[in-house]
Amino acid sequence: MDIRALTPTYAVSPQIDPGDLPAIKAAGYAAVINNRPDAEIPGHLQTEAMRAAVEAVGLVYVVNPVVSGAITEENVATQRLAMQTTPGPVLAYCASGNRSSVVWALAQAGEKPADELIGVPAQFGYALEWLRPALERG
Predict the structure, then answer these.
(1) For position 54, which CATH number holds?
(2) Do the domain assignments include residue 130?
(3) Pairwise CA distance, residues 86 & 29, whole Å
(4) Is position 74 within any domain?
(5) pLDDT tens, per residue, the chain with 138 residues
(6) For the chain, how many structural domains are there in total?
(7) What is the pTM of this model?
C-alpha cells in the first residue's frame, strides 16, 4: 500500500487489497473511492468484492470507475460529491493513483489555482500539466 496524501482530506493510491483496509481505517480515512473499472482487475478486487471488504471495516465505499483517457463529467461530479460529503478523509485508488489525481484536480477546477492542482500531484510523480487548459477554464 502506497498512500499519497494530496491534501489533509484527500489521498490517492495504486490498487489496494482487502488486507490493506484495517490500516487504511487506522490511518483515519473515512471513505474509499474506487476509480478502477472492473474490466481492468481480477475478480477478488472488483467492485462488489471491494465493497464488501470496505464496508466490513466500517468505511464508506464509493464506486466511480474512470476509464483512462475517457474521463466524463459524471466521473468529475461523482468524485467532487464524495470529497464534499464524506465525514472525514478520503482515499481514492486506481491502477497507479494517476486517474484519482486527475479527477481530484478536475473536481476543483475554478476553486483552486491550476498551478496548485498540477503542482501537488507532481510531488508524487503525477504529470498533470496536460490538464492546464481545463483547470484554468474551471
Answers:
(1) 3.90.190.10
(2) no
(3) 10
(4) yes
(5) 799 999 999 999 999 999 999 999 999 999 999 999 999 999 899 999 999 999 999 999 999 999 988 899 999 999 999 999 998 999 999 999 999 999 999 999 989 999 999 999 999 999 999 999 989 886
(6) 1
(7) 0.93
- CB count, 10 Å around CB of 83? 21
122 in a structural domain: no
H or E segment to which residue 81 belongs: helix 73-85
Amino acid found at 5: A
Rg (CA), the chain: 14
Cell of 90: 478520503
Check: CB of residue 46 under 8 Å from CB of residue 103: no
Closest CA to 137 of 84, 76, 96, 78: 76
All three cell numbers of 24, joined, read 487504511
Contact in structure between 9 and 83 (CB atoms under 8 Å):
yes
Q: 55: phi > 0 → left, psi -120 to 50 → alpha, else beta; which?
A: alpha
Per-position DSSP letters for 52-78, written without gaps between them:
HHHHHTT-EEEE----TT---HHHHHH
Has residue 88 been placed in a domain? yes
Grid cell at residue 111? 476553486
